[in-house]
Amino acid sequence: MRADALTMSLLYDYYGELLTEKQRQLFDLYYDQDYSLSEIAAAAGISRQGVHDIVKRCARSLEEYERKLHLVEKFLAVKEKVSCIDEILQEWEEEKENPEEIIERLRKLSATIIE
User: Fold this and answer.
1) 4-13, long-range: CB within 8 Å, 24+ apart, which pairs?
2) Residue 27's closest CA among 64, 44, 114, 70?
3) How far apart are CA 98 and CA 56, in angstroms?
4) How many C-alpha atoms does 110 have within 13 Å on its Cβ side?
5) Short-list 102, 106, 77, CA closest to 92
6) Less CB within 10 Å around the terminal CB: N or C of the chain?
């Protein structure tokens, strides 16, 4: 898997519908299906350089959408906070002490998620 494939796949999940159908197809083949530029070029009937340019342009577009909208950043922040909630609940299950402190910690986390 390409080094930035996970990041690109996440950006694609959020913003992929903003790309054209052809861009989506080529992007999917490159990042998700792990085809080489040459393989994609042969299948699409365009040059290897043409595929490279389209894929790079798609990546830049997805990154620009994220810079403006921050949807992936917000998703990852919520995911991290939910993970913290799970850890707090795990601590509570193990200790079963001081429920007021646990409740307060959970309320603070939930408040940051709602914001």
Assistant:
1) 5/31, 5/32, 5/34, 8/59, 8/62, 10/72, 11/59, 11/62, 11/63, 11/65, 11/66, 11/72, 12/62
2) 44
3) 53
4) 8
5) 102
6) C
Query: Both tokens of residue 5?
Result: 């494939």
* Of residues 27, 85, 25, the one with CA closest to residue 52: 27
Q: Are 65 and 11 in contact (CB under 8 A)?
A: yes
Residue pointed to by tokens 């796949």: 9
Sign of CA dihedral 76, 82, 85, 87: negative
| pLDDT tens for each residue of 59-86 | 999 999 999 999 999 999 999 999 988 8
pLDDT band at 104 (very low <50, low <70, confident <90, very high): confident
Tokens at 72, concatenated: 């992936």
